[in-house]
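dude i think i finally got it to work??
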Amino acid sequence: MTENTNFLENIQDDLKQIVQPYQRDLNQRRKKADFINLCIRCAGRDDFLRLDELLKTKITEDIKADEALGDSTPIFESLSRYANEKVDQYRIELIEDLTRIFQEAELEIQMDFPKFSSLKGINGEIDFSARCTKINKKVLKSIDPRRILTAVSKLKHQLYDRPYDPEKFIDSLYQVYAELIKTEKLKFSDPISIQKFYLEYVISLQNKTFFQNMDKAKFKGYSLDQFSVDIWRYFQAGIGGTSQGFELKLTSSRGPSLWLIDSQGEPRRITAISFHKQQE
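look at this
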């Protein structure tokens, strides 16, 4: 019985050695066949965006080099040229359409394809191959200009269209800073970590009822995008500082940071915040 068992086990191992190269070759052929069929379906739908993406992958070169599939190189090169031309034309039309509908909506847009920006703090990037648009890290599963406009308009409403008083805003920042200075036993004008400050500032925005029952439905959110835009709007207002005569200072150095818009309107990694007495 043992001899038979050993014999059969050895035979199985030998057969596996025989079939493995054949199985690998079969799997590779199946992948190539599936790829070609996918190209056929994309060509049938004139899905040139997907074709352009597919024809730039390594498997395309493997198929062109596969003698068993005949001379497929002219076919794939011709299809690749077609897809490239269509993508280039579509890119031009997309930029033109996006610019036009933003102008019609009286909303500014600056194009540096595939990136674009609108008001300060609103930035986007169009991903052609994935057919999606990233707007402030949120992904819109579309590259339709009208849907992009809708998403940007919604974000603009959230960030810019609510009541905003730059003096009240800067005074509220100063109040949180002053409380942190006292709590941390620091001297005035010492820098405070921007990450710690942002957390404390969001906490300061909550209603008293929230601390009695910290249900998420009662939490008042305040996004980093909103914080950044509010700081930019304060700089733009040109009021000079707090009602008590203190100036805001944002510091960029090594350490934990947040991306904020600086006084020049540029995104910058900010590590600390402080206030200083205004010069007479």
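The CA atoms of residues 197 and 239 lie 22 Å apart.
im so relieved honestly
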